[in-house]
Amino acid sequence: MRKVLKRSLLAMPLLVLAAAPARAVEGSDFLLENAQELGALCGANTNVAAIHMCEGFLVGVHRTYQSVASALGERLYCLPADKGITRDDAARDFAAWVSKTPATVTMSPVDGVLEFAHLTYPCR
After folding, report:
1. Residue 106: CB partners within 8 Å, gap ≥ 6?
2. Please, are residues 43 and 21 in contact by the beta-carbon 8 Å criterion?
3. Domain boundaries along the sequence of the chain
4. Distances, alpha carbon 17 to alpha carbons 12, 51, 71, 100, in Å
């Protein structure tokens, strides 16, 4: 038990460094006027309100998409059944994608999430 605790304590500085946000979150980011603002919230690992809003938004888009896709019989993206994807994973991956995709500044947050999901989890 002590070894596990000791390893955990030694790893903490690495986790803090890995959790550094791409940019500082601003109050206006919570307005979600574009996908880039959502990406800023998703990348703000040390801001509890930001990450909760991000994850709630991602889940909301996903659940709405599931209902629409089921009704239309078409799928834009397919989450892999054999790989558990957590909300934290999705938030981190979305933030990374936004940081590499300049066009997200002109995308709505919903369009950004769906574009990310389509490119990241294509249906086969």
Report:
1. 34
2. yes
3. 33-120
4. 9, 17, 44, 20
Structure tokens of 24? 């500082």
Distance CA 3, CA 118 (A): 42
Crossing angle for the helix pair 35-42 and 48-72, nearest 10 degrees?
130
**Rounded alpha-carbon distances, angstroms, from residue 69 to 47, 63, 76, 98:** 33, 10, 8, 24
d(CA 1, CA 9): 12
Give residue-wise pLDDT tens across range 90-107.
Answer: 999 999 999 999 999 999
pLDDT: which is higher, 59 or 27? 59
Q: Residues 63, 67, 69, 75: what is their CA dihedral angle, to the nearest 10 degrees?
A: 30
- Give the chain's radius of gyration (CA, Å): 16
Contact 111, 38 (CB under 8 A): no
